[in-house]
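Here we describe the complex-level prediction in full. Unlike the single-chain runs in Section 2.1, the two entities below were treated as one system.
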Amino acid sequence: MSKWIEVVELNKIPVLGSRLIKTREMDIAVFRGSDDQVYAIRDACPHKNGPLSQGIMHGTSVTCPLHNWKIDLTSGQALGPDEGCTNVFAVKVEAGKVYLNLD
Amino acid sequence: MLKENLVLIGNGMAGVRTLEELLKLAPDQYNITVFGEEPYGNYNRIMLSPVLASEKTIEQIMLNDEQWYVDNGITLHKGKKVEQINRARREVIATDGTVAKYDRLIIATGSLPFMLPLPGADKQGVIGFRDIKDVDAMLDAARRYKKAVVIGGGLLGLEAANGLIKQGMEVSVVHLLDTLMERQLDKPAALMLQKSLEERGMRFLMEHSTAEILGGERVTGLRFKNGSEVKADLVVMAVGIKPNIELGKSAGLHCERGIVVSDTMQTITDPKIYAIGECVQHRGIAYGLVAPLFEQAKVAANHLAKHGIARYQGTVTSTKLKVTGIELFSAGDFIGNDTTEDIVFKDAASGTYKKIVLQDNQIKGAVLYGDTVDGSWYFQLMKDGTDISAFRDTLLFGQAHLGDSGHNPETRVASLPDDAEICGCNGVCKGDIVKAITEKKLFTLDDVRAHTKASASCGSCTGLVESLLAHTVGGDYSKTPTSKPLCKCTDYTHDQVRGGILQHGLKTMQAVRDHFEWTTPDGCPSCRNSLNYYLLCAWPTEYVDDAQSRYINERAHGNIQKDGTYSVVPRMFGGMCTSDQLRAIADVADKFQVPTMKVTGGQRIDMFGIKKEQLPAMWKDLSAAGFVSGHAYGKAMRTVKTCVGSEWCRFGTQDSTGLGVKLEELTWGSWMPHKFKLAVSGCPRNCAEATIKDFGVVCVDSGYELHIGGNGGIKVRVTDLLSKVETEEQVLEYCGAFCQLYREDAHYLERTAPWVERVGLDKIKQALEDTANRKVLHERFLISQQPAQIDPWKQRAEGAEANEFTPILIEA
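The structure predicted for the assembly as a whole is:
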């Protein structure tokens, strides 16, 4: 059974930016695209655990602030010639609120 | 299995090198016996000249001492000359009667000095220059006599003459032709060489042909064919060498100039007999240099070890003169002909001459005098037949300039070992890059960056990577166009986009992207940063900064560290501080349990290990104590470093700290294309290191020298002098105007140093020396400073951008 948790209002996330969510398990970055599409990804780059929430978002990917790896926000896969993967989570927007599913 | 017997005649460099190569391939294949005429182990004959000049000792030039022969189970008959080879019985016989049987034989008898058959050539004191015995004779003569004559102005003769001068003798060199070393040098280089040797006291008798050697039992002088005479207590004949083929000839081996060998180094007469080194003639050539003999040794060893795959195909040779302090290199066809082209550089005053002979964009030969650093590089290009058209315009300046179009580190790419680190930021070695280029078939800099990360961070190794790329893929290298697009989202350049922003009044990023038809909807990290800056610079009072288009450091107003924490550097104007300020910083550090503090290179205090959510609270305390952001994290004006100046220093000429504070008050907060550092030194001793800053002031008694475009980073660049002014007001005006010119003209992420090199100092000088223009620039700088000098820390301490610093906590 899936469990949706309300985390934040959509307009509290900057467009092409992110908010950092701290859970008991781990840190998660929630990004908001220019089309208000929302993505949730573990806040650790597969390269050296750089905080992806602090990176610059473009299209549907984010560039890690530490060493410029580009990570696809939909799959968690490193893009281009880099290889690696981090977790992504189901996320949805309903009535201006962002819900996260950690299952 | 019974071992075969291998006998080597000639304990010199060629023969012993062959044994060494053989032992590597097949250590147990042969019982080895060596005959050497000289009573030594194997020494480096080409180092005899330094021994003569007392720069080295015999011990230092020994290659294999006697223990080496013992260790390798080799029987060494030293001081024994082989006088006969009995090919029928397969044995060699030495003068003392020693007999050795062979299954295979190597003849490496080397060469003999060519002694001119002159009347009197048999007198005491007339010698050649070939072995340790000759060196001893020369050293002995130098102790007892005064005057020496060297016949022959070639490589060997000049090295001998130089050594004898070092031993205190008066030396004249007799040469048949009008220029020295005609086999290695062209005329200009030869004349420069002669001049510098004359400065060392060497005398020359050019175009002199010796008729007779005078004297009784011992030589007293020379008479020339023109009738003149010269006194001499020692005559060294160094007119050349001839292959020592006496033994080979007597054994019935086919000899011409040397013992004739095939491509496997076997004599063409008897395949059981190999010949190697200077006694050999291969494809018509008898070599007198060391490089060919090493190649021959490899081939012979390969064949002796019965691998049988190697063939010797001749060697392209190069020459270096071993006279300390004289740098000289030549290789190949350095004279040229109707079908070749020359590239020549000559500076007689500095004693530098370079000539490269080209044919169809390949190097055919080279002569270098004075500066020979790149000799081996040219030689490699020549041997490889590399097409040099891509870097022909910088070829003469050497490998250091290859692909180095400005502010890039020096390159020695081709000569670097594979484990040499090219990209210091990402720890990428040459081997990694070459491997990626070859295996993944990369042709552009961007490809290399994407696959290896080399030059993808600070970019300072870009030139190095480009030249590595050029070197690795050769002619296929797609050279980065000189006008690079701003980023991958557009084909337009930085300058075109900036021009468009002003010309068409584009005031948002979206407007710019629409106007220039960006290929991506919201740009990339590269153009987002650039455009945000360009718009801010163009419309300082209107443009609304886009935090999401700034790198995290500038968004969070701190420097992100490897663990995701931040560092905090409060501004201390001019590096000045009070005890109260220090106390306030200390209190903040205690309160927030700062784990590490350090004084920065820019004379500020850095606090490390701060969690992002703590930043606003920390800034609140710092703000209350009067501090503003130090912008140590931004592409922005960073610091003004000062020395103490006339207030205290006994050498200080002006109030450098006071001026430093004023400069920092003028410039702080300014966003720049890249980081921007200033310094003010109170006197020309320059303790504040102003001449490696973006804008440096050096105070002098009569005013202030203004320096620009310095950099103390990866590649140190000393500033250029911009101007000299008399008052502090002028310094401030120039500084503001220079900042604005840089802000408006440089590309984003271009420091002042490469910018100055790209646009040229003249353009910058012209713009700033025009009083009206300078005032306009300064005025624009002041306008842009009004919004910039609102302290970002204080704003955030008061609640601005709170979301940025506040994580969302959820119970899950």
